[in-house]
Write a structure and sequence with these properties.
Number of domains: 1
Helix content: 55-70%
Oligomer: single chain
Number of strands: 0
Number of helices: 10
Shape: globular
Distance between the termini: 40 Å
Order of helices and strands: HHHHHHHHHH
Length: 205
């Protein structure tokens, strides 16, 4: 059941300052974090919400647990930060600060660690189905995740944006959903937190 994925690692939260300090400051302009950073963080969280039936609730609970509630105090603030993603229907022209990006990165990686077993199982089933040339619907857990991701993606992203027009079919959205599973699993590896953080700024350093 994806709503409560197995936990293979227990998060050991520190104070927000010490936790945020684990991530190096990256160069940003006076407009805040780049488009790439904003898009990638929001999509990673979208995948988490498709995996976890209580995704939004758990994201806020984890923010409080990690003492990041000074940055992400409530659902409205989280919504505003995520809507800095220019691909969203409800896009808001406000910058994403470096502290907000760090907070979302920590949340993505901590939640990914909680889902490690589920992520590995879904990717294993995906690879087996592809090798056997079988439809992805043959795996109920994988089909459930993909259906939820497609629904979230279509309801929240702006179909008039050129970057979204690429995802006009179920197959293209499924490809994105699988790529995000791989990205989340990447976050659970050795130095996954730091490596994911740096990847958000690739080409900008």
């Amino acid at each position: 059941m994806l709503s409560n994925p197995p936990q293979t690692q227990t998060a050991n939260p520190q104070t927000s300052k010490l936790t945020l300090d684990r991530l190096p400051d990256m160069p940003v302009t006076h407009h805040g974090c780049s488009r790439r950073t904003r898009v990638q963080l929001d999509l990673a969280l979208l995948a988490i919400e498709a995996l976890n039936l209580h995704g939004s609730q758990d994201i806020l609970a984890l923010a409080k647990q990690l003492e990041l509630d000074g940055i992400l105090p409530n659902r409205v603030t989280l919504w505003r930060v995520r809507n800095t993603n220019p691909l969203r229907r409800a896009h808001r022209r406000r910058p994403m600060s470096l502290a907000e990006a760090k907070a979302l990165t920590l949340i993505v990686c901590y939640m990914a660690r909680r889902m490690t077993l589920a992520l590995r199982q879904l990717l294993k089933e995906y690879q087996q189905l592809v090798q056997q040339q079988l439809p992805l619907e043959k795996s109920p857990p994988l089909a459930f995740y993909l259906e939820r991701f497609r629904a979230h993606f279509r309801s929240r992203m702006n179909p008039r944006r050129s970057a979204i027009l690429v995802y006009s079919t179920d197959e293209k959205i499924n490809e994105l959903a699988i790529a995000l599973l791989e990205q989340l699993l990447f976050c659970t590896g050795t130095a996954g937190l730091q490596r994911f953080w740096v990847s958000l700024f690739d080409g900008e350093v």
